[in-house]
Amino acid sequence: MSADEFEIIRSLFAPLATSAGARGLTDDAAILDGAGATVVTTDALVEGVHFLADDPLDTVAMKALRVNVSDLIGKGARPESALLTLVWPQSRPASEIALFADGLKRDLQLFGMTLLGGDTTSTPGPLTVSITAFGTPLGPRTPSRADAQIGDDVWLVGGEIGSAWMGLQLRTGRMALSELRRERDEEAALRDSRAMRDAMPDYLTLKGEDFDAEAAWLMTTYLAPFVRTEAAAIVSRYANASMDVSDGLVGDAAKLAAASGVAIKIEANAIPFSIPAERWAFSGGDFRKLITGGDDYVVLFTAPDAKREALLGMDLDHSLRLTRIGRVETGEGVAVLDRSGKPLPIEAESYCHKLGR
Amino acid sequence: MSADEFEIIRSLFAPLATSAGARGLTDDAAILDGAGATVVTTDALVEGVHFLADDPLDTVAMKALRVNVSDLIGKGARPESALLTLVWPQSRPASEIALFADGLKRDLQLFGMTLLGGDTTSTPGPLTVSITAFGTPLGPRTPSRADAQIGDDVWLVGGEIGSAWMGLQLRTGRMALSELRRERDEEAALRDSRAMRDAMPDYLTLKGEDFDAEAAWLMTTYLAPFVRTEAAAIVSRYANASMDVSDGLVGDAAKLAAASGVAIKIEANAIPFSIPAERWAFSGGDFRKLITGGDDYVVLFTAPDAKREALLGMDLDHSLRLTRIGRVETGEGVAVLDRSGKPLPIEAESYCHKLGR
Q1: Residues of A in contact with B116 (CB under 8 A)
Q2: Where is pLDDT greater, at B204 or B91?
Q3: Which of A56, A321, B166, B348 has its CA 20 to 30 A from that of B194?
Q4: How many Cα atoms sit within 13 Å of A111 on the Cβ side?
Q5: How many CB atoms lie within 10 A of CB A168?
Q6: Measured between alpha carbons, how far is B64 from B123 in angstroms, rounded to an integer?
Q7: Residue A206 has what DSSP assignment?
Q8: What share of chain B is helix, strand, coil (3-state, %, to 5)?
Q9: What are phi and psi of A39, to 5 degrees?
Q10: What are the two backbone dihedrals, phi and then psi, of residue B135, each rounded to the nearest 5 degrees?
Q11: Separation of alpha carbons B273 and B266, rounded Å
Q12: In chain B, how many H helices and how many E strands?
């Protein structure tokens, strides 16, 4: 479906969202009315749309949980529990569910969550995994997309931009390993990779090419994003507006700007990229793909500039990749600025057919 | 998937359900920890499994909500809000979502519920609708399946058994209208039907046969079950064990018996059937199909026999179809007894491929 069609859908369902906690269906999560302080979010993954048919089922389970955990982090909430709806293809052996359950189990333990219930049914169609996740806000406020203030700094926290997009390209063969190795010390790359190869599962090796450690890392990022629950405390304490970046930095920043009625200016050279992504972009790759590609699952938030020093103190070792990338101004839309402050020509894009990009 | 496969799945996921509120994944709903008194349930419908591709989309939305409302009623809870995950086929025009939204809207109003949020995504497969519903318990207890006591009466409340199964047979052409009209005053049937025909939507008419009022009523029951939220108060006040009947009376009673570690004896002649179902069974139809068929969405509960009079007083006009159908004894399993008290030969059946039966 196109972005327009999704807007039509929102307009059809929004009038049914009559409680304050539903936030008019414009936010990434809802506040459960009459249930104390509980944040709830739901996201579904469909085989062939959000993941590939041959993605390993443990990472599919992990991704299904993490995209929801990412929403909770973006609202400054600690993940607590989840409901799982597993729509299982009639053509897949039920025995494969064990691998799925294994991945889910590891991740529930990782995040300190419990499985609360769910539903399992069969389908003549693709594997579909719908998870509803519940969290507890770490502070009195649950920041929405709509609370950005003029003069706020714009921040990212929790990871780098574009790595998952590169991982998907590598995994689908749309990006060749040679593209990744451009401008790179061939010898060192091979040495690094040989040391890691044996420890890697088969699905992280590229078909017909040598194993590459960086490619494996990028593909891992695509398969199961590294969401950081520690970032929730930062969001809860400092964010005015906040949301997770799932459909591409530029498109999601545009959503936040629209919801808040502001303009967002992002400095291109401040955006945190991974080392292979940066090298790829500098050696001829189109960096705009990195910032519109999606699947990043990091948090985008705004905070008063008076909090800048305090914020930087929250991630002194930069393990959470807390990075100030821009500012909130009057106006509308998103601009990505080059070193001289000129807007780069970028279409704000956000896709729903995720694997189609 | 077979019942065995579902048991395997349960055994894989049950260890992940570490909170008390999850009830070891053995119940129809969970209690949301740390969220005050909130009951949560989730059920998904898949095109070609739980509904037909040409079922009208407003009734698909209604059914998707009602199967969840039915779970809440079975736990003695008042429905409050819902999350909707709509997995929309790439091949269906997005414009059809308006009809879906229309049905959902009417039903949310009917039940006094609000839409809290959700997710919409596309799929190369069949339409899949997953709803998570939240409710408030009407009393201090949320009865589970496991609380039946020896000596309890067994009750049904909220509707009749087998009507939805007959509606599905009629709608799919597996049952001919002539079967329904056996032993029936042909003249009166035609007269009744002519009077109703013009008021009925097209999808309730049988292909190649005359419109029939009873058939239309049965098909309506299949398309969107008549769940009765008033029954929640009865469950909350009187039930020891309780669950909704969705996969056939006998199979679901067997689940309740197993969870409680008891035997359930049901008197066949006490089971509430609709008039057309009763006539069909008496004129040669196999009444065992009615009690194993499914899609009834009524509530099965047990209550102390000392409460029998008080319970009957809760439904003096029988509008809630509150009916005592049996008793809880020591032992295990379910037996359906004939007028002389002898067990009828019935396999306890419960299907997951719902339309396959």
Answers
A1: 17, 19, 21-22, 30, 32-33, 40
A2: B91
A3: B166
A4: 35
A5: 24
A6: 18
A7: P
A8: 40, 20, 35
A9: -100, 135
A10: -140, 160
A11: 14
A12: 12, 11
Cβ atoms of residues B287 and B281 within 8 Å: yes
Q: Are A160 and A222 in contact (CB under 8 A)?
A: no
Residue A85 and residue B125: Cβ atoms within 8 Å?
A: no
Give me the sheet containing A114-123, strands edge to edge: A30-31, A39-46, A128-137, A77-89, A114-123
Beta-strand pair B114-123/B77-89: parallel
ipTM: 0.86
Q: Token pair of B155, please?
A: 């009750």
**Contact residues for A111 (Cβ-Cβ < 8 A; gap 6+):** A65, A69, A79, A229
Which has more confidence, A26 or B36? A26
State the average pLDDT over residues B78-100: 93
Token digits for B271?
Answer: 């089971």
pLDDT tens-digit readout, A146-170: 999 999 999 999 999 999 999 999 9
Helices (H), chain A: 3-13, 57-74, 97-111, 163-171, 177-181, 186-197, 213-223, 231-238, 249-260, 275-282, 287-292, 308-312
Best of A65, A99, A132 to substitute, by most chain B Cβ atoms within 10 angstroms, is A132
Chain A residues whose beta carbon lies within 8 Å of the beta carbon of residue B40: 83, 116-117
Count CA atoms within 13 Å of residue A190 on its CB side.
6
The model's pLDDT over A161-204, given as tens digits with 9 standing for 90+, comes to 999 999 999 999 899 888 887 766 767 766 666 666 666 666 66
pTM of the predicted protein model = 0.89
Nearest CA in chain B to A82: B17
Residues of chain B positioned with their CB less than 8 A from the CB of A105: 15-16
DSSP string, A209-253: S---HHHHHHHHHHHS----TTHHHHHHHH-SSEEEE-S-HHHHH
- What's the token pair of residue A354? 């995720």
